[in-house]
Amino acid sequence: MDAKELEKAIEAAKSGPKRNFRQSVDLMINFSSIDFSKPDSRLNAEVLLPKGRGKPAKTAIIAGDELVTQAKQAAPLVITKNEITSYGTDKQKMKKLADEFDFILCQTDLMSAVGKSMGQVLAPRGKMPKPIPPTAVALAPLVKRLENTVVVRNRGKFLPTVHVMIGNEEMGVQDLAANVQAVIDAIMPKLPNKEGNIRSVYLKLSMGPAIRVGAPSREEKK
Predict the structure, then answer these.
(1) Which of 4, 12, 97, 162 could connect to 211 by a Cys-Cys bridge, CB 3.0–4.6 Å?
(2) How many other C-beta atoms can be found within 10 angstroms of the C-beta atom of residue 143?
(3) What is the pTM of this model?
(4) What is the pLDDT of residue 106?
(5) Do the strands 44-48 and 149-153 form a parallel or antiparallel pair, or are they unpaired?
(6) Strands, E, within the chain: which ranges?
């Protein structure tokens, strides 16, 4: 991707209508010649944004007795082993959990119980817990890393597009460009024809118009 065209598009997107709140800057990538109905073709990647998200992601932790104390020091919400069942019987409680938190970490030996009790609600929302690696000696670094991480996933069931936040309107153009490039670099190895599978790229403020990066392709002009 041409760096100058990318920065030009970011500047144009940032100049959109101002609101009485801090807007996010969103990246939209449209694909072509990929069959996303095939599981191996679908995109679902976590990307650490080098310049941060602009608004830290929120992480909840599901922990057993041995990790509860450490978890409470690292995350704003801790669900204990004994609370898993109460969440599982309260769909509204689980929906609130999925809406308020970007990531959920879970002690490995509790993953099965969580899947049975909470999977029906969390899985369709893309919020199934991530297992805490057995080798992890501290939870705080895991949570800190997730604060600046975004999930790049196909929109809808098989739609050939992704839509992801890459920062906010107060961030500098070069920082936002670095975040865009990190997303592109993360998904490129997953595309069979690399750049040939990218139909178009757009940037926009959360309440602003979409600005295309570069000139439209022949396919788009038709």
Answers:
(1) 12
(2) 22
(3) 0.87
(4) 96
(5) antiparallel
(6) 24-31, 44-48, 59-63, 77-80, 103-106, 130-131, 149-153, 161-168, 198-205, 211-212
Cα torsion 81, 83, 86, 90: sign: negative
Phi, psi of 8 (to 5 degrees): -65, -40
Q: Is 198 helix (H, G, I), strand (E, B) or coil?
A: strand
- Computed over every residue of the chain, the mean pLDDT equals 90
Which of the four pLDDT bands, split at 50, 70 and 90, describes residue 222?
very low
Residue found under tokens 């959920």: 104
Which CATH fold topology does 3-54+149-221 show?
A: Ribulose 1,5 Bisphosphate Carboxylase/Oxygenase (3.30.190)
Between 3.40.50.300, 3.30.200.20, 3.40.50.790, 3.40.50.1000, what CATH number should domain 59-145 receive? Answer: 3.40.50.790
* 44, HSE (Cβ side, Cα atoms, 13 Å): 13
